[in-house]
Design brief:
The protein has 194 residues and is of the alpha/beta class. It has helices at residues 12-21, 45-60, 91-101, 167-173, 175-190; strands spanning 3-7, 27-31, 63-73, 109-119, 125-137, 153-155. Helices cover 31% and strands 25% of the residues. The longest helix is centred in the N-terminal third of the chain and has 16 residues, at 45-60. The protein binds inosine 5'-triphosphate (ITT).
Length: 194
């Protein structure tokens, strides 16, 4: 029987991406039960990712994977940063807030960052990786795919927003996709193919 790996996330956009990104790993991906709520009280992406993975692992006595991710905008001194999911009540209001704050500002440089942590059933962090994806913030939305800030983030090499990309291309270029690609060889050691 396959070992379980709990995905410590309640974000449906992320969950969809993880299901594809981890499809090559010989584990049974399970969703964090609704009853578990982890407070993101850390001051860094890493602290929050570790906290989410650890608490879910300890409660369920199983491996867990979590990321804390966000959008860091140069002209806003790195905001929304670790507050990306709390920058408004929903994706639309978060996007509108960013566009408002950048009105009249020429420097549109930004990056997405993901810190991904895997914890053991005992709640010890055994893997931890960070990756970034660079781009620019547009002045209005473009594209309909994805989630979160995808429609206003234009990736640097393709000049497409994440919301204009197919899932396959976003998975190759995104912060989360790059972080998971680096983790796969390590995950394969924990969840071997035989
Ligand atoms: P979980 O903690 O349950 O995983 P969350 O949405 O609270 O869900 P984070 O604390 O990591 O997750 O916040 C990340 C936010 O950054 C997320 O809500 C989006 O607004 C944004 N974000 C992260 N990755 C993104 C991506 O690939 N595309 C668009 N927005 C993204």
């Amino acid at each position: 029987m396959k070992k379980l790996l709990y995905l410590a996330s309640k974000n449906l956009g992320k969950i969809g991406e993880y299901q594809k990104l981890l499809s090559d790993v010989n584990c049974q991906l399970a969703l964090q039960p609704d009853s578990i709520d982890v407070l993101e009280s850390g001051e860094t992406f890493k602290e929050n990712a570790a906290k989410k993975a650890c608490e879910v692992s300890k409660k369920l006595n199983n491996y867990a994977i979590a990321d804390d991710s966000g959008l860091c905008i140069e002209a806003l001194n790195g905001s929304p940063g670790i507050y990306s999911s709390r920058y408004g009540d929903n994706d639309k209001s978060r996007i509108n807030r960013v566009l408002r704050e950048l009105q009249g500002i020429n420097n549109r440089n930004a990056y997405f960052i993901a810190n991904v942590c895997v914890s053991s059933p005992e709640g010890e962090i055994i893997l931890d990786i960070e990756a970034k994806c660079f781009g620019k913030i547009l002045s209005s939305i473009r594209g309909t795919n994805g989630f979160g800030y995808d429609p206003i983030f234009e990736e640097i090499s393709t000049k497409l927003t994440f919301a204009e990309m197919s899932n396959e291309i976003k998975d190759k270029l995104s912060h989360r996709g790059k972080a998971i690609a680096k983790l796969i060889p390590e995950l394969k050691k924990i969840f071997p193919d035989y």
